[in-house]
């Protein structure tokens, strides 16, 4: 399937590229938050736009032909730098950093004003987005990966903007289907629960599944 790319990069070079990717995405993330919260007037907005457009032009000097895709080194490590949740190159991603334990995966994420839904609260779609990735990556790390077939989310109480904790574990595996459960906790209370069914698609049940099964994702 296209978009899965074998691209071996030496460790030092990879560390350098990773640092560059995180640094620019971090700056743009700050820009996004500053944009949401700014109260400046027309002339400052005009000046800011001029500078942003100049920065965009610099970045456009050398571009990938399309999306980043998913890239593998021959050691099995995987880069999903464009990913909407984990992608270190992607300023829209919070970004989420996942910690894989033997039997569960967790993350702690700071969600600022750019992720607002109801006033002062995290948008439910953003929580679903994070849960989708968290549960999917948990299945992947446990060696039973798949694409999201179904994701059910129950919002038990509001989640204020700020720090949240996500946790997920594989509940069971039935053939090509992996059932994963997870929670979002905010201020010590569970605010959302999810169950996902992750299905190894037909196209990945041959050679690609070997790659997917062995790889550990990195945003
Ligand atoms: C890799 C780690 C990162 C993951 C986090 C990111 C998650 C994502 O964003 S993934 C993107 C969103 N999801 C998608 O785009 C998926 C789109 N859908 C598809 O590609 C396909 O419909 C797919 C893969 C779900 C299933 O198709 P296919 O491979 O043909 O499955 P198929 O052989 O028909 O069915 C296999 C089993 O799954 C069941 N099944 C099929 N679709 C679903 C579904 N949507 N929900 C639940 N069960 C399903 C079938 O009933 C069958 O069950 P059983 O084995 O008991 O008979």
From TrEMBL:
Main subcellular localisation: membrane
GO cellular component, one term: cytoplasm
Signal peptide: none
EC number: 3.1.2.2
Annotated InterPro entries: HotDog_dom_sf, THEM4/THEM5_acyl-CoA_thioest, Thioestr_dom
Gene3D superfamilies per the UniProt record, alphabetical: Hotdog Thioesterase
Membrane topology summary: Peripheral membrane protein
Broad class of enzyme this protein falls into: hydrolase
Alphabetical list of SUPFAM superfamilies matching this protein: Thioesterase/thiol ester dehydrase-isomerase (SSF54637)
Subcellular location: Cell projection, Ruffle membrane; Cytoplasm; Membrane
GO molecular function list: hydrolase activity
PANTHER family: ACYL-COENZYME A THIOESTERASE THEM4
Protein name from the UniProt record: Acyl-coenzyme A thioesterase THEM4
Origin species: Gordonia jinghuaiqii
Phylogenetic classification of the source organism: Bacteria, Bacillati, Actinomycetota, Actinomycetes, Mycobacteriales
């Amino acid at each position: 399937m296209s978009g899965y790319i074998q691209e071996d990069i030496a460790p030092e070079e990879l560390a350098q590229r990773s640092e560059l990717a995180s640094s620019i995405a971090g700056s743009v993330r700050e820009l996004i938050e500053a944009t949401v919260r700014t109260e400046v007037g027309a002339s400052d907005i005009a000046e800011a736009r001029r500078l942003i457009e100049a920065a965009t032009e610099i970045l456009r000097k050398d571009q990938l032909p399309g999306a980043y895709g998913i890239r593998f080194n021959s050691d099995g490590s995987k880069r999903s730098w464009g990913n909407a949740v984990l992608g270190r190159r992607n300023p829209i991603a919070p970004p989420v950093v996942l910690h894989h334990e033997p039997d569960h995966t967790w993350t702690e994420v700071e969600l600022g004003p750019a992720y607002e839904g109801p006033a002062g609260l995290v948008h439910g779609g953003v929580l679903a987005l994070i849960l989708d990735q968290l549960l999917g990556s948990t299945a992947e790390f446990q060696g039973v990966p798949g694409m999201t077939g179904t994701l059910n989310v129950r919002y038990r109480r509001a989640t204020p903007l700020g720090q949240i904790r996500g946790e997920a574990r594989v509940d069971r595996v039935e053939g090509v289907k992996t059932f994963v459960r997870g929670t979002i906790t905010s201020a010590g209370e569970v605010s959302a629960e999810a169950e996902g069914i992750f299905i190894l698609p037909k196209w990945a049940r041959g050679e690609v599944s070997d790659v997917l099964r062995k790889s550990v994702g990195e945003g």
